[in-house]
Automatic annotation (TrEMBL):
Keywords: Fatty acid biosynthesis, Fatty acid metabolism, Lipid biosynthesis, Lipid metabolism, NADP, Oxidoreductase
Source organism of the structure: Streptomonospora arabica
PANTHER family per record: 3-OXOACYL-[ACYL-CARRIER-PROTEIN] REDUCTASE FABG, SHORT-CHAIN DEHYDROGENASES/REDUCTASES FAMILY MEMBER
SMART domains: PKS_KR
Entry EC number(s): 1.1.1.100
Pathway: Lipid metabolism; fatty acid biosynthesis
Function text: Catalyzes the NADPH-dependent reduction of beta-ketoacyl-ACP substrates to beta-hydroxyacyl-ACP products, the first reductive step in the elongation cycle of fatty acid biosynthesis.
Protein name as it appears in the record: 3-oxoacyl-[acyl-carrier-protein] reductase
Classification lineage: Bacteria, Bacillati, Actinomycetota, Actinomycetes, Streptosporangiales
Gene name of this polypeptide: fabG
Entry-linked Gene3D superfamilies: NAD(P)-binding Rossmann-like Domain
Domain Ketoreductase residues, every copy: 3-176
InterPro entries: 3oxo_ACP_reduc, KR_dom, NAD(P)-bd_dom_sf, Sc_DH/Rdtase_CS, SDR_fam
Catalyses which reaction(s): a (3R)-hydroxyacyl-[ACP] + NADP(+) = a 3-oxoacyl-[ACP] + NADPH + H(+)
Quaternary assembly: Homotetramer.
Length: 234
């Protein structure tokens, strides 16, 4: 059966590929975005997930167009890298407000309908950085690590209602961000990855598709690393 799915930050990069993968599986997929254009054929809803009113309005639009959200992928995120000694409070708090509190806002809104239906799938997109740390990214690492505790607590709250909550933690993935790195920096990163390469957005998307499907019905509170072995042991 076609489900109503929502992917935040789904108009580019990993989020766009996740949205496409869910659509290919037969789901009706909506994406939130702040700028640019949504993927062709998918419902696009402008939304700043740091604004609770915008989140509520986005969900109402999705509910009107394709029904209550049955699959939520909280993917939207930002970075504002800096060394701690030079990091401003805004650089720290704005990253947490988007990456962590933003996930709280959308998960809370989605959970209402899921609880009533006694079913649902929630996947939060974290990062290997949240598991092993990264210099110059204390804000980003804190936000992504926070998603793990949030997801596991939520999994305990919602499990009795047939709702699963899981985390995918990507490593270095082929995106515009990694493409902008120098060849020397890319080579240095790959030397630290046991599989010796960057991952693809498709590999993240297929993992999310699995976690939202029937084959993963008995998986909840899990953190699935898709990082080529970079963060193993964390």
């Amino acid at each position: 059966m076609s489900r109503s799915a929502l992917v935040t930050g789904g108009n580019r990069g990993i989020g766009r590929r996740i949205a496409g993968e869910l659509a290919a599986a037969g789901d009706q997929v909506a994406v939130t975005y702040r700028s640019g254009e949504p993927p062709e054929g998918l419902l696009g809803v402008t939304c700043d997930i740091t604004d609770t009113a915008q989140v509520d309005a986005a969900f109402k639009r999705v509910e009107e167009e394709q029904g209550p959200v049955e699959v939520l992928v909280a993917n939207a995120g930002i970075t504002k890298d800096n060394l701690l000694a030079m990091m401003t409070e805004d650089e720290f708090s704005s990253v947490l407000d988007t990456n962590l509190t933003g996930a709280f806002r959308v998960a809370k809104r989605a959970a209402r309908g899921m609880i009533r239906r006694r079913s649902g799938r929630i996947v939060l997109i974290s990062s290997v950085v949240g598991l092993m740390g990264s210099g110059g990214q204390t804000n980003y690492a804190a936000s992504k690590a926070g998603l793990v505790g949030f997801a596991r607590s939520l999994a305990r709250e919602l499990g009795s209602r047939g709702i699963t909550v899981n985390v995918v933690a990507p490593g270095f993935i082929e995106t515009d961000m990694t493409a902008a790195l120098s060849e020397e920096r890319q080579a240095e990163i790959k030397r630290n990855v046991p599989l010796g390469r960057f991952g693809s957005a498709d590999e993240i998307a297929k993992t999310v598709r699995f976690l939202t499907g029937e084959d993963a019905a008995y998986i909840t509170g899990a953190v699935i690393p898709v990082d080529g072995g970079l963060g193993m042991g964390h």
